[in-house]
Amino acid sequence: MPKKKMQVSKDQGDTWKYRWVDPAEIKPEHTILELGDWVRANPESQVFVIGIRKGMLYSFRLEHAPCVYTYTLDIGQSFSFQTLTKEEADILFIAALKESGILRIDEKMLVN
Predict the structure, then answer these.
(1) Measured distance CA(15)–CA(43) in Å, rounded
(2) What whole-number distance in Å separates Cα of residue 86 and Cα of residue 72?
(3) pLDDT tens digit at each of 112 positions of the chain
(4) 81, burial (CB in 10 Å: exposed 0-12, middle 13-18, buried 19+)
(5) How many angstroms separate the CA atoms of 18 and 31, rounded?
(6) CA 107 to chain centre
């Protein structure tokens, strides 16, 4: 399917950027879309949230997201994610910890 110019938000709707997206692509390695991204055709259209199931991308309407998962750290910082599953929220939480610098994983630690 040909790519379409769509608006993508990586920060839950705070900012939007136009990107060329293939709406039919479900393999994460072949698209710029990531778990938790919000996507819409234009400012007046419905918002869809990108999810991941069994390693493949899918989308659901924002208003159909049944759960908001909130993680609060002892230092008082909180992270909230609107997803369909706890597993998706966990993935987003770990990514947010890495991005914020709170969590750093040394690759050497992952090798036995």
Answers:
(1) 11
(2) 15
(3) 789 999 999 988 899 999 999 988 888 889 999 888 999 999 999 999 888 878 888 888 887 766 777 888 888 888 888 777 788 888 888 888 888 888 777 666 555 4
(4) buried
(5) 14
(6) 24
